[in-house]
Every structure is written in C-alpha cells, then in structure tokens.
Prior knowledge:
Layout: H1 2-40, H2 45-48, E1 54-58, E2 61-68, E3 77-80, H3 93-99, E4 104-107, H4 125-138, E5 144-149, H5 153-162, E6 167-173, H6 189-194, H7 197-205, H8 211-219, H9 230-237, H10 245-258, H11 268-272, E7 278-283, H12 291-300, E8 305-309, H13 316-319, H14 321-333
Parallel strand pairs: 3-4, 3-5, 5-6, 6-7, 7-8
Antiparallel strand pairs: 1-2, 2-4
Amino acid sequence: MSSITRPAFRPLRLILRTIVGLVVAVSLYVAASALYVYAHEHDSLRAAAPAGGRFTKAAGVEVFSQAHGPVSDATPILLVHGTAAWSGTWFSLIPALRSAGYPVIAVDLPPFGYSGKSTHIDFSRSAQAERLATVLDAYGVRRAIVVGHSFGAGPALELALHMPERVERVVLVDAALGLESTAPDVDSPACRVLAQESLRWPLLAASAANPLWSKALLRSFVARKESVTDARLREYRRPATLKGATSALGAWAFHFACLPERGDSTDANRIRDLRPPLTLIWGARDTVTPLSQARHLQSLLPQASVHVIDHAGHIPHIEDPARFQRTLLEVLATR
C-alpha cells in the first residue's frame, strides 16, 4: 500500500518545493534590493544638488530649480518635467532654447530631482502649481511661458487656469491629465499596499528604485528604444542617492495612483475657459498617453494646435531632440 501511495505524492512534493524556492528567491531579492537602496540613499539635498541651483520653500517643501540666462530681464520659459525626471533631464533642449535667446527656468517638482523628500506634503496639482508660482516669485518673474511634460503638464495647466496672469503661453507635451480616466479606488488591494509605507518601500526598492530595472522602465515610455542611452540613464538616476528618495517616491505614488485630483485642470468646463494660448506637442507612438488624448483636449479648446512628432513615444525631447526643438521653437516664435 505504501509503495503505491508514495509515488503519488512526488508531484505534490515537487510543486511545494518549487513554491518554497520561489518564495525564498523573491524574499532574498526584495531584501537585497532594500539593502542596496538603503545603503545608497545617503546624500543630502544641498550637498548633492547641482551648483548654481536655487532652493525655494514652497507649499511646505524645499523646491529646487535651475536658471539659465537672465530670467528676470525677459519672459522666461519654465520647464516642468514628467515622472521620474528632473531639471537635469531636458538634455539638449535647454542649450537650444538659450541659443535662440530664451532664458530658462527648470524646476524639480516634489518628490523628484533635488527637491525635498518629505512624505507628508500635498502632492496635488493645485499645490504643485502653487510651488511653480512661488519659484517664479523667487526669481522676480511676473509671467512665463510654461512647458509641462507628462505628469508635469497637470501642474502647468493648473497654473495657467488658476493664475492666467502669470502665464503668457502654455505648451503641454504628451500630457498625463487623465481627463478620460476612471476615478481611482483607494480601497483597491494595490492602493491598500501603497497606503502602507512599510509595504510600499520594499516593493519600490525592488522595482522603480532598483537600478536593475531603471533602463527597462525608461524604455517602456519611449518608442525609439535606442534613445535610452547609458549616459541619459545615469542623468535620470542622479538624484537616486538622496536620503529619503524612495520613501518620498512612495508617498507621491500613493497620491498619484490612488487619490482623485480635484483641481481646475480636471474640469473640462474650466479647461474650455483657459485664457493663455495652448499648444500640444505629442509623440505619434505614445502608448502611455496616446495621441487620442491630445485630440480630446483639442476638442475642449479648438483653438489649440497639435504638433505630432512622428516615430516618437512619450518622451519626444529625448527620442527626437532635433525635431522636438525645432517644433517648440516654431511654436514659441508664433505670437
């Protein structure tokens, strides 16, 4: 009898051993990732930030920005980056704008770049727009041309709607506005995990904050994969050594993924009343915020123009820098 039943248990034992092995492997990977991130997040903001930048206290947090050219003597261009980017990831765009005579302010919106890493601040678009206005105040700038990319398009549009007197023109690049998205469910399993710092921190350490995944994650945003070079990737990751970077990223991720936005930039009727001129620049092959979202936004503001960058995905300024720069400069030259 026992000689008959023992073989029947062998497949079960194999399955159990496989499951245990996978659990152990995953646990070791998460633990190793957490140790790596913990060991490498050691720099302070002010010691590590690029020289010549400025810190401005705005809406409860230190906001880092970099000015290029005499920004108080003319109407500057305010560059507002997207997710996981910062003021140093515009690459050749800033030199191109300076060569054309435009002064530039590039800002780091929390929790990204060299801005403060608090986990207890307001990450809403309204608060981020307030930070943009405070940065302009710090430079003595009354009005700016605001260029917002991806996640940064929300605060850029919010500023233009809430304080139109501060914005001469707004340019949105592959804007992540979520106008047609369903409201997030804060009680979903994923949001319940993100709500707990003790759970989200190791998960982020093993994924978004892990350098093993950085290249694959950035490549998932672009259509032209070759644009994600090692040099660009290093620049994207420069602020990853800051103390509290992963904790701040987790707090922002919970807000972004799980809490509904309630600013003016979420209201189609308010967007229809936008006063500053609006231009949209979009990658034709964007799979993160597809071109249909640009068309929807244009339906709210028929006077807005849409400029499509062929063969580019969600980050056209690194996928086709020359075409993007030419397009933006042509837009800026049209008054």
